């Protein structure tokens, strides 16, 4: 296949568009729903109900309905969501929590903050998610929880992970920060949203996420009534009613302005995810013919909502490609250049005489290209053309 030959006149007549290619374009997305967003924000300001109140309650219910889950506990951010989830499980200092080494640091960060021990494990070389087999090999009598990460927008294989967890009687906390809206299909045909399959699910509403707010925000999901009540208390200073503190908690709230924004954007989430999938399909069509690239793997039992579009560069020239794209005014990102077990803050948790070969290899190969809901065809054509030029 030859490079996409869409007209690039608009791009070459002026550097304005080229200079402003971004990994995620949020402003055009806002403009499309500006009247709804502005009205929702104005209503919060006029009400002066900035913390809690009807906007937060309405979003909480709408998100629970969308996710098909009994309980949604809004909180201040995705990292808090993970911390509150682990606190609610009643783990003790030194308890082991299994986490993939190829993920954002927040997943392991909260484990360390709580005095728990992160057990960092390898991942599948194609999906970038950890697997049930890898997890089971790491389970010891001290293992109390597993935190599978649905990386880049595609679910880990939750059916078999849950089987392993139940077999060993350990809890499962899904890190769903990059996959809100993704569906997972079980072998019996049943479909569930990622984040609702484990004992607890967590997510982030960071602005660049598929469902993002205009600041920080997060949420926790569960179908367990007891865990839900405990997490509500933990998120609110550990109090079951005002000034009565039954648990040591934290102060983690989703404010009403962010809830108002999220209530509007939730209505468009499936549309947003479909737009990202369309961009990913165009990238796939082009890059599948470049032998030095491996396009994202799509598992049959899960949708991929492409929080990131991540390629593997297999000829050892990943860093050269990144530099070349930067010279062409095309941003790219490396998620993640250093695995968790090689990070200074976490290296002491891992036997450095050992290795996680897949994670260490893909950290040298992955590169993520711009992808968002408002990607223009001519901009994507320009990106594709320049990638082809690099490998020509």
List keywords for this structure.
15 helices, 39% helix, three-stranded antiparallel sheet, globular, seven-stranded mixed sheet, 392 residues
How would you describe this structure to a colleague?
The chain is of the alpha/beta class. It contains 15 helices and 14 strands. A hairpin with a 5-residue loop joins strand 6 and strand 7. Helix 4 packs antiparallel against helix 11 (256-266). It starts with 8 loop residues before the first helix and ends with a helix. 45% of the residues are buried.
Can you lay out the helices and strands and say which pair or pack?
Elements: H1 9-12, H2 15-19, H3 27-32, H4 34-47, H5 54-67, E1 71-75, H6 78-88, E2 96-100, H7 106-113, E3 117-121, H8 132-138, E4 143-146, H9 158-168, E5 171-175, E6 183-185, E7 191-193, E8 200-204, E9 218-222, H10 225-235, E10 239-241, E11 244-245, H11 256-266, H12 269-287, E12 293-294, E13 309-313, H13 318-327, H14 357-362, E14 366-369, H15 377-391
Parallel strand pairs: 2-3, 2-4, 4-5, 5-8
Antiparallel strand pairs: 1-9, 6-7, 8-9, 10-11, 12-13, 13-14
Helix pairs in contact: 4-11, 5-11, 6-7, 6-10, 8-9
């Amino acid at each position: 296949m030859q490079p996409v030959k869409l007209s690039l006149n608009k791009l070459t007549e002026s550097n304005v568009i080229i200079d402003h290619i971004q990994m995620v374009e949020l402003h055009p997305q806002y403009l499309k729903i500006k009247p709804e967003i502005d009205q929702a924000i104005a209503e919060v300001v006029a009400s002066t109900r900035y913390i809690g109140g009807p906007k937060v309650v309405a979003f909480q219910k709408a998100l629970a309905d969308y996710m098909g889950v009994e309980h949604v506990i809004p909180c201040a951010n995705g990292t808090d969501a993970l911390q509150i989830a682990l606190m609610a499980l009643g783990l003790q200092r030194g308890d082991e929590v299994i986490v993939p080494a190829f993920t954002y640091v927040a997943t392991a960060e909260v484990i360390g903050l709580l005095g728990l021990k992160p057990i960092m494990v390898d991942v599948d070389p194609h999906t970038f998610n950890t697997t049930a087999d890898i997890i089971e090999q790491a389970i010891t009598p001290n293992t109390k929880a597993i935190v599978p990460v649905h990386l880049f927008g595609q679910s880990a294989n939750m059916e078999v992970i849950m089987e392993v967890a139940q077999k060993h009687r350990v809890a499962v906390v899904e890190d769903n920060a990059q996959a809100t809206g993704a569906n997972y299909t079980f072998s019996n045909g049943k479909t569930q949203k990622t984040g609702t399959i484990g004992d607890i699910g967590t997510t982030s509403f960071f602005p660049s996420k598929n469902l993002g707010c205009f600041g920080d925000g997060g949420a926790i999901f569960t179908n367990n009534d007891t865990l839900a009540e405990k997490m509500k208390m933990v998120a609110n200073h550990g109090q079951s009613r005002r000034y009565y503190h039954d648990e040591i908690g934290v102060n983690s709230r989703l404010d009403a302005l962010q809830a108002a924004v999220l209530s509007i954007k939730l209505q468009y989430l499936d549309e947003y995810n479909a737009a990202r999938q369309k961009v990913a399909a165009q990238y796939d069509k082009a890059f599948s013919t470049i032998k030095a690239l491996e396009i994202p793997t799509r598992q049959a039992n899960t949708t991929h909502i492409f929080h990131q579009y991540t390629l593997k560069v297999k000829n050892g020239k990943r860093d050269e490609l990144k530099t070349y794209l930067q010279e062409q005014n095309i941003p790219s990102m490396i998620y993640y250049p250093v695995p968790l077990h090689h990070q200074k803050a976490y290296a002491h948790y891992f036997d450095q005489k050992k290795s996680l070969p897949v994670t260490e290899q893909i950290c040298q190969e992955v590169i993520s290209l711009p992808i968002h809901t408002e990607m223009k065809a001519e901009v994507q054509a320009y990106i594709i053309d320049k990638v082809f030029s690099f490998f020509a």
